[in-house]
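Customer ticket, subject: "Can you confirm the structure for Enoyl-CoA hydratase/isomerase family protein?"

Message body: Hello, I'm evaluating your service for our small team and ran a test protein. I'd like someone to confirm that this is what the system normally returns, since I don't have a reference to compare against.
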Amino acid sequence: MEDGRDRVLIRLDRPHVRNAIDAAMVADLHEVCAELERRPRIMVITGTGGVFAAGADIRELRERRREDALAGINSGLFDRIARLPMPTIAAIDGPALGGGAELAYACDFRLATPRARFGNPEAGLGIMAAAGACWRLRELVGEPLAKEILLAGRVVSAEEALAVRLVNEVVPEDELPAAADRLAARIAKNAPLALRLTKLALAAPPGAHPRFDDVAQAVLFETEEKHARMTAFLEKRR
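Agent reply: Thanks for trying us out. I re-ran your input and got the following:
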């Protein structure tokens, strides 16, 4: 983890197994989440060696039993990442498959290089994509394409992912870190509490609106930062 004032950079670094997500990585990412819950900042997560994450560690996955599935090992982590207070950015170079794709789906933004690929081949291994893909992917790209990916093993290229807005931008490999920094900087220009409450509003169920929005806005109306930012805006226009 590279720690900054308004953001952290997380590198998935198990190149010998294509950054496969194992129990140790899950534990490490929970520690990152705990830190970002305690001190909220933007998170950028990326891979190494031309791979984002090629899935869960199959050697570990083969030995897991019913109790492990019910414990929600990966789904619990990805839900926690999705609920982090500040926005999250997945910077994806190369394959994001299986659990690696589900990790990317859990982030608020996805940037990709031309060699990025997205897929969920779990059914071919006798299991299902149970860590978020069955519902997040449908929300992100629509049910027809989600079914192709989950039921027919379709792998989506970076170009296709951009066309369906699964990714926000495609940039050359050597420009990916800078693109993630630019996006993080754009986000960081905004008021942190406004970002946090907006993210909560986006995740709220339909029945919570508009009351949730009204209450959140009431909180923001009383902040010193709102007054200072609006005063600066008005003075700039004089």
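A couple of notes from the result: The two ends are 44 Å apart (CA to CA). The longest helix spans residues 23-38. Feel free to reply with more questions.
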